[in-house]
Amino acid sequence: MAGVPARSAIVFYPHHINSAPPQGSALRIAQTPTTPEAPKSPESETPTPPEAPKPPESETPTPPEAPKPPESETPTPPEAPKPPESETPTPPEAPKPPESETPAPPEAPKPPESETPTPPEAPKPPESETPTPPEAPKPPESAVSPGNWQAFTAPQGRFSIDFPGVPNEQVEPADVATRRLETGAYIWESTNSPLGYGAFYKVFNGTPTNEQARTFLDRFLEDFVANGVVSGKLLSNRAIAINNYLGREIEVEGAEGYIKARMYLVENRLYLLTAVAPSKTTYPQDGDRFFDSFKLR
After folding, report:
1. Which of 53, 57, 105, 153 is the most buried (most CB within 10 A)?
2. What's the count of helices (H) and strands (E) in the chain, helices before strands?
3. 244-251 — which CB contacts under 8 Å span 24+ positions?
């Protein structure tokens, strides 16, 4: 503007200043603008001063209410939090002292049995010291015949029978010159007991009648008991038969032992079956298998 020094080109209005400028300031504060020499248009010469307008918001904004300081600068302190357990833990209730430190005294235990054992009832003495004598058992050979039963066939004797093992065989043919008759013997004997089975046959000349057969069997029995393998008391004598041929069964017991025998007269052949044991009480339970298995062929 003309007539205004260059240093006074910046004009400040009162609302720009909150306090008086310092003394000696180079700035000139104009409360009312100086009328320039050059006249302005009528409106600019004597304008009716309007009411002091509010400074533009951009220049003099109305200060808003004082905002709360940001939390990052002056945060409102929250309620005092409980200290973390790791820093200031709330002390729990006083725990019971561990058993290992101050264990509660248990009830007085009973003394171990090894120290003060209760005396048991008086035991019975072991059997080895005072064994109860068992009943007298029968000898082992009296239970069953030792060995394995198997069928045996005598082709020359024309019969078959079961033995508890392989029998010893001895056959003598007939001799006309000496008038010797054909005989055969098949004998099995136990190796660990006085037990044996025997099957014998003898061939005669001619075939007896039934009456002759009875007479022959009676005489043969008398001689067999008196002079047989076992001589002693005749316990039993009963008539038997096989395939309608006459026979006898006897039991004899003496000082030498017990014998059971069966004999059959079949045409011109005499068959004699024997079982020998130390006594009748030791006769094997399967002894009759020997007699019952006899078959003519």
Report:
1. 153
2. 3, 10
3. 246/210, 246/213, 246/214, 246/217, 247/217, 248/217, 248/221, 250/221, 250/224, 250/225, 251/280
Instruction: Tell me, rounded to whole angstroms, the distance of Cα 255 from its chain centroid.
Output: 60
263 close to 247: Cβ distance less than 8 angstroms: yes
- Compute CA distances 243 → 240, 266, 268, whole Å: 10, 9, 15
Q: Mean pLDDT, to the nearest integer, of 33-50? A: 52
Distance, CA of 180 to CA of 25 (rounded, Å): 186
The whole-angstrom separation of Cα 266 and Cα 246 is 8
Which single residue is written with the structure tokens 């409106």? 43
Residue 34 has pLDDT above 70, yes or no: no
Number of other CB atoms surrounding residue 145 within 10 Å: 25
CB atoms within 10 A of CB 31: 6
Nearest to 45 by CA among 36, 32, 53, 54: 36
